[in-house]
Specification:
Length: about 100
């Protein structure tokens, strides 16, 4: 059973969306057997490397899934009100090892 990142002491990393490639490359180099997922709203998704170990989805479809690394792209764009808050919560809690939040602002 994977352990939540809230228990492992690894801090959440914040950065710019321009860091996506570097974040994925660095993480994949250190975690050959890991699976990463880039989660963003449909209109904010960015191209991701053509890697078997990297998935891409929207918050609504990530519910119930777990990934070693989760990279959120512009989570403030996931919506407003309760629905947006729920989508952000669901997306942020998909990570078992590392959570990275990248914003374009």
């Amino acid at each position: 059973m994977p352990t939540s990142i809230r228990s492992n002491g690894v801090p959440v990393v914040h950065g710019s969306t321009s860091d996506l490639g570097r974040v994925l490359d660095t993480w994949l180099a250190a975690h050959a057997d890991g699976v990463a997922c880039v989660i963003g709203a449909g209109d904010t998704m960015m191209p991701i490397p053509d890697e078997v170990a990297v998935r891409s989805t929207i918050p609504e479809l990530s519910k119930g899934l777990e990934f070693d690394l989760v990279v959120l792209i512009d989570p403030e764009g996931f919506g407003t009100g309760i629905e947006g808050a729920v989508d952000r919560y669901v997306a942020m809690t998909r990570a078992t090892q590392q959570l990275v939040i990248l914003t374009s602002r």
